[in-house]
Design a protein that fits this description.
The structure holds two protein chains of two kinds. Chain A has twelve helices and no strands. Chain A is an all-alpha fold. Chain A has two domains: 52 residues, no CATH class; 214 residues, MetI-like fold (Orthogonal Bundle), CATH 1.10.3720.10. The relative contact order of chain B is 0.13. The longest helix of chain B has 32 residues. Chain B is mostly helical. Chain B is globular. In chain B, helix 1 runs antiparallel to helix 12 and helix 3 runs parallel beside helix 7. Classes of the chains: A mainly alpha, B mainly alpha.
């Protein structure tokens, strides 16, 4: 498409509006990070002091030394990894079955995995709490990982099915003629080719699990508190200590932002066709 | 064991696919299907968490109570306004962003990456940063608005019913517009340049190109994104929970939030379940339309 607009026109019709949108998108994020490295005096200044004379890491020190936030970070990491491993390991064989076999109930089962991803969380979370309490999984890693598998499994199945669909069936058949069993085909042929898709899906699950709040809050107590739950408790506890709160926010947000930027291009194709709760 | 051939319908006794599906089905059964059945059961009982021995069956009593519950109707009304405002504005901003990003200029890939950032953030952080920016005493929004003369004195954004509701809507637009931008952009990039060249030859204006080429070509993508987002926004409650907890008063109650608070703070699991089921039933139509569209891909 040729663009016959003058540079001035392009400035007003393209660069400026987009710059405003980028500022809107980045503003709150940058403001949070800026606040986290300002001294309390600068944070409490009115009118707002946009660029302080000196920056400080005191809030990060306070956060990691005086609160349990370091442990919360570790908890969230373990849970997100667990959700990833559980989600991918049960979904890969399921996706293979959906992609390569035509069997009775296939349509119904696939639709089921799509529909349960649309269920309101409140529909599941109340009885899940009762269930976890009854079997003693409240406030355990397994309990929260299972909670997160409610979205991790359906999402992975749809993503992986579309990735496996993109692999030519000839590859499977060639391997079979050479005498490979179904499991060997899955392990030696499908797995290596689908690896980029597996990584993308895994990162998405990781990010979603790391960010998740409701399940983590309902199903956790003192022992396995995640970063999102801890932050929400801090908001109640240190309500005016914005330096501390934004430092915690920054530590939560930075790793997932980076991971997300890493996979965003490959995610879109899956998102437009599959089912996603983000 | 043999695979099913590509053309013929599968013989009924091929076990392999079912074995492959077994782990996923077991997990789903345990953490989704069984709990949903349990929700239905609880909604028919007067189930209060700290009275586990006294759970009388009350039939549709909870649903009857719901119809006469002012807060339910209030929350439902809020939900409808909330969904239409948030989804339409997210879409509008996302569409504009996508149309801008679909042109060629030197900082395009940078802009594309930066615009996506709000999407990656957890709702707790969205609640936190916006609460901080809306702060009455030292919030940046009051400061900026005062500097530009938009307001005369600081406003307590989250403490008044209407402004609290709209403030959360703005935060949600911020969180959700990147999804539309990226999805619509992906749709735009599938449109062949020849179509535009032909339109140029015919002397089409830029508005005509948008109206007659661009929008029809991405109608499908837009419809899918709108459906998906409607479901998502209708279900989401965590940003509201963090920012206002439903207040002031009931002014930011939505249906999922009400269901959640009934169960979580009120311990009324039976009534909370009935509210959750009501929400699901109301959403079912949207889910049905979406699933029908997505299911077209099943038979490829």
């Amino acid at each position: 498409m040729t663009d016959r607009r003058s540079p001035l026109q392009r400035l007003f019709e393209l660069h400026l509006p987009l710059l405003l949108i980028v500022l809107f998108a980045l503003g709150p994020y940058v403001w949070m990070m800026m606040t986290s490295i300002k001294s309390n005096a600068d944070i409490g200044a009115w009118p707002v002091r946009y660029w302080p004379d000196a920056f400080t890491t005191e809030h990060y020190h306070a956060l990691l030394e005086r609160t349990s936030f370091g442990v919360n970070l570790l908890n969230s990491f373990v849970i997100a990894c667990g959700a990833c491993v559980l989600g991918l390991s049960v979904s890969l064989p399921a996706a293979y079955a959906f992609s390569r076999y035509r069997f009775r109930g296939r349509r119904l089962l696939m639709t089921q995995f799509l529909v349960i991803n649309m269920f309101p969380i409140v529909l599941i979370i109340i009885p899940l709490f009762v269930l976890m309490r009854n079997i003693g999984l409240l406030d355990t890693f397994i309990g929260i990982i299972l909670g997160h598998s409610t979205f991790a499994v359906p999402f992975s199945i749809w993503m992986l099915t579309s990735y496996i669909n993109a692999i030519p069936k000839d590859l499977d058949e060639a391997a079979r003629i050479d005498g490979a069993t179904t499991l060997e085909v899955l392990r030696l042929i499908i797995l290596p080719v689908v690896m980029p898709g597996l990584v993308t899906t895994g990162i998405y699950i990781f990010v979603t699990s790391w960010n998740e709040y409701l399940f983590a809050m309902m199903l956790s107590g003192q022992n396995v508190r995640t970063v999102t739950v801890a932050l929400q408790l801090f908001i109640g506890e240190f309500s005016v200590q914005w330096g501390l709160l934004t430092a915690a926010g920054t530590l939560i947000a930075l790793p997932v932002t980076l991971l997300f930027l890493l996979v965003q291009k490959r995610l879109v194709s899956g998102l437009t066709s599959g089912a996603v709760k983000s | 064991m043999t695979t099913a051939s590509k053309t013929a319908p599968a013989p009924p006794l091929v076990l392999t696919p079912y074995l492959f599906l077994l782990p996923a089905m077991l997990v789903t059964l345990a953490v989704v299907l069984w709990p949903v059945a349990e929700t239905v059961w609880m909604s028919l009982h007067n189930f209060i968490l700290f009275k586990p021995r006294n759970v009388p069956f009350i039939g549709l009593g909870n649903f009857w109570r719901l119809l006469n519950d002012e807060v339910f109707w209030l929350s439902l009304g809020h939900s409808l306004v909330w969904i239409s405002l948030v989804v339409s504005l997210q879409f509008a901003l996302g569409l504009v962003t996508a149309l801008l990003l679909n042109q060629s200029f030197w900082w395009r890939s940078l802009a594309r990456s930066l615009v996506i950032i709000p999407w990656a953030l957890p709702s707790v952080i969205i609640g936190l940063t916006w609460t901080w920016m809306y702060d009455f005493n030292v919030g940046v929004i009051n400061d900026v608005f005062l500097r530009f003369g938009l307001i005369d004195k600081p406003v307590a954004w989250l403490a008044q019913p209407t402004s609290a509701f709209l403030s959360i809507v703005v935060a949600l637009i911020w969180q959700g517009f990147p999804f539309f931008a990226v999805t619509i952009l992906a749709g735009l990039q599938t449109i062949s340049a020849e179509l535009y060249e032909a339109a140029d030859i015919d002397g089409a204006t830029r508005f005509q190109r948008l109206r007659f080429i661009t929008l029809p070509a991405i109608a499908d993508v837009i419809a899918t994104a709108l459906l998906l987002r409607t479901i998502w926004v209708a279900n989401s409650l965590d940003v509201i929970l963090v920012m206002t907890g439903g207040g002031p008063g009931y002014s930011t109650y939505t249906l999922p939030l009400y269901a959640f608070l009934k169960a979580y703070s009120g311990m009324e699991f039976g009534y909370g379940s009935a509210l959750a089921i009501m929400l699901t039933l109301l959403l079912l139509l949207v889910v049905f339309v979406y699933v029908r569209r997505a299911a077209k891909e099943l038979d490829q």
